[in-house]
Specification:
Distance between the termini: 18 Å
Structural class: mainly beta
CATH topology of the largest domain: Thrombin, subunit H
Number of domains: 3
Shape: globular
Organism: Candidatus Bacteroides intestinavium
Largest sheet: 5 strands, antiparallel
Helix content: under 10%
Protein name: WG repeat-containing protein
CATH class of the largest domain: Mainly Beta
Number of helices: 0
Order of helices and strands: EEEEEEEEEEEEEEEEEEEEEEEEEEE
Length: about 290
């Protein structure tokens, strides 16, 4: 494992196929999928991201699990339901039932001290890091909290609304009948359908209807995918295209840089991995190229 400074933290410590399941550390903890030859199953295991990684939790691993946040990790043992464990591997609390209904799914992590959960009847609510339900499971679709707000959907009344971390309704927003893209607030804005809202719920801009998927805006710039060509490009907060370049893949936006890539379909390795030209675009929209 290497750090963001490029220095090797450790090597040859964990025996697993990194080409099948690359790993990364979140808050000092990383996870791996390791194949159990005797049982013919893959087991999810957790380790500390240290020079000598220490295992966390059950040595035999877990069926499913999330990432480490708020001091706990959601995991599903092979013979049990949803547990939240600490770095010592101890169960802090379980989340199996609420008001007579099974809890069938939980968020992989906490944001703004909240994590969503889903009951057996496909209703969503939120818990705090103590496992206490702070927002009742009454919504039909939800998003993670960000900047103190979450966008949730009330199917009965056909409404998208913004709520705070205590469940208070802040304002209603429209989606224009389109699928949501990244329905959470980031840097003061939220994209819902092809509408762009500010943090007070005011409609700022109608984005092009040809957009099929969009990233959050960062410094008034977003990555969007055209629903017809499936190519990615940059737009500004007014919906105008930035530059003429279009790319096969959107790899993310980190700090002041946008990462996009073009697949070189004719170049394949024996293990069927493929090459890609990766373009790193800075805030001045000047690009440089790497090859992976």
């Amino acid at each position: 494992m290497i750090g963001i400074d490029g220095k090797v933290l450790f090597k040859d410590k964990i025996n697993y196929r990194i080409d099948l399941h690359p790993s990364y550390a979140v808050n000092g903890v990383f996870r791996t999928w390791e194949f159990d030859q005797s049982e013919r199953v893959e087991r999810l295991k957790y380790y500390t991201a240290t020079e000598n990684p220490n295992p966390i939790g059950l040595l035999e691993g877990y069926k499913e699990g999330g990432v480490y946040s708020e001091g706990i990790i959601p995991v599903v043992p092979y013979d049990s339901r949803i547990h939240y464990i600490n770095l010592q591997g101890d169960t802090v609390f379980c989340l199996n039932h609420y008001k007579g209904k099974d809890i069938s799914m939980v968020s992989s992590f906490f944001t703004d001290h909240r994590a969503w959960f889903m009951t057996e009847d496909y209703k969503y609510g939120y818990i705090n890091p103590k496992g206490e339900v702070v927002i009742e499971p009454i919504y039909d679709n939800i998003s993670p909290f960000h900047n103190g707000k979450a966008i949730v959907y009330d199917k009965q009344n056909d409404k998208y609304i913004a709520i705070d971390t205590n469940g208070k309704v802040l304002f209603e927003v429209g989606a224009n009948g389109k699928q949501t893209h990244y329905p959470f607030f980031h840097n003061g804005y939220c994209i819902l359908g092809n509408f762009l809202y500010n943090e007070k719920g005011k409609l700022i801009q109608r984005l092009p209807s040809t957009i099929d998927f969009a990233s959050p805006f960062k410094k008034n710039v977003a990555l969007v995918q055209n629903q017809e060509t499936r190519l990615w490009q940059l737009i500004d907060i007014h919906g105008n295209t930035i530059g003429n370049s279009q790319h096969d893949n959107a790899l993310g936006m980190i700090d002041d840089f946008v990462y996009v890539g073009d697949t070189l379909a004719k170049e394949w390795e024996e293990d069927e991995s493929k090459y890609m030209n990766v373009y790193i675009i800075n805030s001045s929209f000047a690009s440089s190229t790497c090859r992976f």
